[in-house]
Amino acid sequence: MKRKTSNRSGGSEGSDRKTRITVLVALGANLLIAVAKAVGGLISGSPALLSEAAHSVADSLNEVFLLAALRRSRRPADRRHPFGYGKERFFWSLLAAVGIFVMGGCFSFFQGFEALRNGAEESFGGYVTGLVVLGLALLFEGASLLRALHQVRGQGGAGGLRDPALRTVVAEDGTAVIGVTLALVGMALHMVTGQVVWEASASIAIGALLVYVAYWLGGDARDQLIGQAADEGLRNRIRAVLDAQPEIDSVEALLTMQLGLESTLVAARIDLAPGLDSEHVEEVAIRIKRSVARTVPEADQVFLDVTDARTAREAVRQGPAGQADAEGSPAATGERGGA
Known about the structure:
Layout: H1 13-44, H2 47-72, H3 88-118, H4 124-154, H5 164-193, H6 196-225, H7 232-243, E1 248-260, E2 263-272, H8 281-295, E3 301-307, H9 309-317, H10 320-327, H11 330-333
Parallel strand pairs: 2-3
Antiparallel strand pairs: 1-2
Helix pairs in contact: 1-2, 1-4, 1-5, 2-3, 2-5, 2-6, 3-6, 4-5, 5-6, 7-8, 9-10
């Protein structure tokens, strides 16, 4: 009685196409910026600029992860993965968060502490080159961020950030703009005062920023991978549809799990109204599932466990013997599941 698995688990093709373009724009910008920052950092010996180069390299690798997520999450369901591959997005987003932490945050901390311990090579000609590189990087990063924010607005504002790929690009570009600004300030103060502590502090601040962003992105991906419930608004819509069905006397339990951007698993334990002919239970269950899927398109995997909750509650009131019978019944275990 299970509905055929939908291929929508990875999100709509239109939004995926726009997200892919946004990721490619960010990838192109980060590759160019990474090369420019690395060359400028080697010429100037600037720890802040080298930290930013590592940041851009990490971002470039993460964009590759996100492109893989967009492609792999749209694969159709198969016998090995009957609910589809929508969670691929969350897995690759988790890898991107790890990349930000290791390649960006840790290297920035290393550069900052090394500069404090050993000082930094001072070549004001090289620093002027570094400042020019950072100025260009700020323009490119800002353009990429505006592109990502434009797509977010086009997909309903904050709702557009449900897509982990788009959310990661926005976080990376926003962090890059802040990081470049910190590096510019640190390098400028180093040139003015001759104190490397300003630039080292900027490098450490960049590292702290990257670690925070990595923790935020990684925590969100972790929640999705271990089986996060649908948001409260979606759960309320599903419950409202079930409560409106004339054949349902009560909804004893409603469990949801997000399988992808537009795919949600729904498992409901329902008590049917008295007097319903048992021969028509399956027909009623199919009609209810279709009603849920039609009203709430995101709920594309619906399972109903038809129980007799009144019998189970009465058995519990009868004491240990009755409770044992109730615990072994379909009402308690859901063994008559998957309608």
